Amino acid sequence: MELLPSRELHELAVRLVCTHALSGGEVLYLAAALSLKSGSASELQFACADTKLRTAAEHEGLVMLP
C-alpha cells in the first residue's frame, strides 16, 4: 500500500509533533500508521522497539505487537 503526502497527513503530523516528544521521522512513521488505520476496515498492528514511539502509538490507540 502506498501513502502519498496530503494535507490530512501533514495536519496529523503537526498534531503529533506538538503532542509527543518524537523526532520528525518518528512522527511521520506514526502519522502514516494512523492514516492507514483510519482507512482500513481491518485492525492494524504497530511494531517498534523505540520506547517513546511505542508509548505515543499506544496513546494514539494503535494495537501494539509484542
List the helices and strands and how they pair.
Elements: H1 7-19, H2 24-38, E1 45-46, H3 51-59, E2 63-64
Parallel strand pairs: 1-2
List keywords for this structure.
3 helices, 66 residues, two-stranded parallel ribbon, mainly alpha, 2 strands
Structure summarized in a few sentences:
This protein has three helices and two strands; from the N terminus they run ααβαβ. By secondary structure, the chain is mostly helical.
Number of helices: 3
- Uncertain segments of ≥5 residues (pLDDT<50)? none
Largest sheet: 2 strands, parallel
Adjacency order of strands in the biggest sheet: 1-2
What overall geometry do the principal axes of the alpha carbons give?
globular
Q: Total domains, how many?
A: 1
Please indicate the percent range of residues in DSSP E strands (runs of 2 or more). 5-15%
Estimate the helix proportion, in percent. Answer: 55-70%
Q: Mean pLDDT, nearest integer?
A: 90
Round the Cα radius of gyration to an integer and report it: 11 Å
Number of strands: 2
Secondary-structure element order, as H and E? Answer: HHEHE
Q: What distance separates the N and C termini?
A: 23 Å
Q: What structural class is derived from the secondary structure elements? A: mainly alpha
Describe the structure.
With 66 residues, this protein is mainly alpha-helical. The chain has one domain (7-14, 21-64). Helix content is 56%, strand content 6%. It has three helices and two strands; from the N terminus they run H-H-E-H-E. The chain has helices at 7-19, 24-38, 51-59, and strands at residues 45-46, 63-64. A two-stranded parallel ribbon has the order 1-2. Helix 3 (51-59) links the parallel strand 1 and strand 2 (63-64). Helix 1 packs across helix 2. The longest helix has 15 residues, at 24-38. The mean pLDDT is 90.
